[in-house]
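Worked example (supplementary).
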Amino acid sequence: MSPELAQLFRYFIIFIILLSITGIYCILATFNLIRALIGLEILIKAVTLLIILAGYISGRSALAQSIVITLIVVEIVFMAVACGVVLWAFRHNRTIDPRKLSNLKG
Amino acid sequence: MPSAFILVPFFLLIILNLPFKFLKGESAFWLFAALLLAQLFLSALCPLDTPGARPDPLAPFFAFGLSIDSLSRLLLFSIAIVVFTSLSVSRYSIKGQTQRFNFINLVLIMLIGMNATVIVTDLFSLYLFIEVTAVASFILISIEKEKFAIEGAFKYLFLSAIATVFMLSSIALFLLLSGNTSFAAIAGTFKNSADNFLLKLATGLFLCALFIKSGIFPFHGWLPDAHSSCPTPVSVLLSGIAVKACGIYVLVRLAISVFILSIDAKNVLMFIGACSIVFGALACLTQSNFKRLLAYSTISQLGYIVLALGCFTPLALTGALFHLFNHAVFKSLLFVNAGAVEKQAGTIDMDKMGGLAKQMPFTATTSAIASLSAAGLPPLSGFWSKLIIILALWNSGRIFYAGVALLSSVLTLAYLLSLQRKVFFGRLEDSLKYIREAPLVIVFPEVLLAIITVAAGLGFAFMLRWF
Amino acid sequence: MTVRLIRSIVGLALTSVALSALMYRLGSPLAAVFELSVCAGLMSVIFITTVSFTARVSKERLSVRRRERFMKFWYLPFLVIASGLLLSRYLRIPQFKIPAPSGAQDVRNVLWNLRHVDLFGQIVMLLAGAFGVVVLFKEPKE
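After joint prediction of all chains, the assembly is encoded as:
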């Protein structure tokens, strides 16, 4: 692996790690279910960038791009279903606070 | 031939959604049942993927890259049995024409997802179909839109997304190291450079993701909530096969064919398996909710399979796979019984029940058979699989783990017998005097599964040779 | 409350745009276009639809929450900057062998000819999403 490629790799990895920390902070520090979903989204975007980076470095950008395109479709459907579940959680509990979501015990 | 397993349900899905009125009613149910019976026979009889076999007739059109070997066949067989059970329970539990139609469509999607999970040969496609199964199961858990179901669905959703992030980072690292995500390429990378730090990191991440998906001990948080709060046919489906086809099967497949696990990884697997067994068994002793107890029991039994997998001798692997099949059968049976009791008695709290054996004879008998099989009493099938696991552990020198497995087998017997006593034997409560046996659609799968349990126990040598 | 939530959603869309630019720089134009159109667009629509159905939090509890959050996570910006600096100094990527690149392939070729299973999976996923929306987004009958 050539030195400038290694340098590029390092900077991108650092950016990905910082993006992941932002996503994890977003999930932990929120009192709102929708913002927790946004944090999850940020984490998945960090991993998308990791996939593209891996494709670029190993030369297989075509395979990486097809993976990312499929992944984006999966992500959209997942988010749509997650928003539907949050909607019904709101309708039952009248709040979107995750701390109140503890009806099931034991 | 392998593509039939995923293309035929797909065509059925499209046909069911064409705008014809008569398709939305009963015919949907019978078509689906016929499809499942076809899958049952096809999976037991189809030829394995040997080098001299006939190529896939669809090869010029679709380059699917699927392959069925004996592990996949066992899973396809179990998937057919459990989905058939779930379908016939749904006639009883889910009311309303549109609800049933939605249920059938979503279970079809889940069937496509699970069938494809067990027969693809590419790591990213594996992830894709695991995700398809997961999304279908979120929608299925919240299909009745009850308060507890929505909460269970959200917890499952969240942890499944975390598992997604781990799995995808692992796939990215594998792409970096091997240039392709198919099983063959990754196995080749493992052979060439086995002690690369990034390779170990990628393996570790993927295994963590699979632990989350299977509900093994440190990451089991979603399992009791999700499995106990959803409607009965969905519980049967989730606990009977989805947790296994998506989580445990992938672990077994990767450990056998793709990854080359180091000694540390195997020790970690055994330790986590043992912790799951003990934790699940102990948590079961304090439960008063029938379905929640069964969910914790699932954690415990899956721990057995992971423990045997960590041991990794051929005898242990045989025991693990046989226990997988047995658990699919007896856990579905127990959930069907729980559903029957819940619907007829109107409550799921075991402290309020008692003495139902006279009113519901079929349910009581089949529940007793399933409990004895789970606890490992001869000559039922559970006995053989547990015996093989304990023997394999003893033979490979892990005496401590064999002891743990044996003792928790006693614990399993304890909590299941107390379950039976609380619900079926004992004094009959006054408020429950008038309930009758559940209708035929529930009794039929109960009896069928009980027969399978007994038959697998008696004819288990035959089963071993078959698969 | 809703204003801050919409700010988060716009922030997510801006992250998508930034990510799309980075992906273009890394030589993946098709994925960049996909990410821009789908994530920056469709996802914001889905989130804003959901936000419009759920309620807002009253103002006086907002400042209490802000203080709680500040108390719990005050160290985080310092942690992020420090970890960024430390990583850029000391992160050593171990040497590994990159596999030999195969012939220059077009994305379209790979996607449509080699990965049929993925396409099939995408179709099934979209059908699952359609059913999910039908089941979950129906108005409750009063």
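Two points are worth noting when inspecting this output. Chain A has one domain: 3-94. Residues 3-94 of chain A form a domain with the Helix Hairpins fold (CATH 1.10.287.3510).
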